[in-house]
Amino acid sequence: MKILIAEDERDVLDAYRIALSAQGHEVVATENGKDCVNVYKRHYEEFAKTTGGEARMHMRSPFDAVLLDYRMPKKDGMEVAQEILALYPRQRIIFASAYVRETLLDSVNQLNRVVELLQKPFRIKALIDTLEDKEIYDGLKALNVKVDQLKSTNPSHEQVSALLEGLKKLQKGRTF
What we know:
This is Putative CheY-like signal transduction response regulator, receiver domain. This protein is α/β, with parallel strands linked by helices.
């Protein structure tokens, strides 16, 4: 897999890169949100040139997954996700966050979707297992059907808890 990571803590970023590379994944690492968006756009444009232009870009992304720290300098993870999803709406986004409830609510309100979450701190094995589990991303489609309903009402504690529980089941309880 080709994975783009944005993480502002250098030691954490290095740990991700080393572990994922050891598993045979191609890792592109950035230390802030602004750089992440710029790298994504550059790879997106290069990918478009090599795959026959814009028409084919709607079929595939230059990255299999984008792992974003929720809070980072220059642009936070939510802003980065918005810009990436504007280019490629089906991009797999995974947030690494100590604030899973807040991140989930922001993803519903700002991205109009539920995204994958890894609650910090988490073991590297949980990261690898989540990235390599393609069923999670497919399972999100069912949760995302409920997003429009939630946005039209102010989500209650129970509704948010139900979404978190659904996401936890999809991710096999790896980190929260």
